[in-house]
Amino acid sequence: MPKASEIKKNHTIVYGGKTCIVRDIERSVPQGRAGGSIYRMRMYDVVSGAKFDETFKDSDMLEMADLVRRPVMFSYIDGDEYVFLDNEDYTPYHLNKESIADEALFINEKTESIQVLIVSDVPVALDLPMSVELEVVETDPSIKGASATSRTKPATLSTGLVVQVPEYISTGEWIKVNTEERKFQSRA
């Protein structure tokens, strides 16, 4: 059983008899206390989809849920669901648009190394690679002679995500985006 300080985003834990997926973690260190850090976790019940926040001390022990990770590829959108196919046996996994709204901004047909998280035979979340390649569909014109370390400008990508890019990037280029920080990494 891991401590609260060892839990990461997208881990699944059993809390209050429910299987929950951790969507966000905020760490704070209270002033004037001899104790350790406090972890505030935003969690979703994988069965009902209910959202709730809970606070843990860094030494609190949490129980990990049985979780299966399967490599998948994005296939298509069916109404309010994204459909992913297992890379090995082509099993379709349907995920609700709302439950993966943040991850959907990084997914297109070419995105590789996506994993679906399955709890009790139910797909509950996506685990994205550290970086993805996306196409710039709209940005201000590139400036000739702009240096790589100079100012940035907003760029809208093919998935609707908006990130800041260096001035030398132009519409139609493919760029690498860090999925954790939502930031430009490099040209693809």
Automatic annotation (TrEMBL):
Domain annotation Elongation factor P C-terminal: ranges: 132-187
InterPro entries hit by this protein: Elong-fact-P_C, NA-bd_OB-fold, Rib_uL2_dom2, Transl_elong_fac_P/YeiP, Transl_elong_KOW-like, Transl_elong_p-like_YeiP, Transl_elong_P/YeiP_cen, Transl_elong_P/YeiP_CS
UniProt keywords, alphabetically: Elongation factor, Protein biosynthesis
Record has 4Fe-4S as a keyword: no
GO cellular component, one term: cytosol
Pfam families for this protein: EFP, EFP_N, Elong-fact-P_C
Single Gene Ontology BP annotation: peptide biosynthetic process
One example GO MF annotation: translation elongation factor activity
Domain Translation elongation factor P/YeiP central stretches: 69-124
Family: Belongs to the elongation factor P family.
Protein name: Elongation factor P-like protein
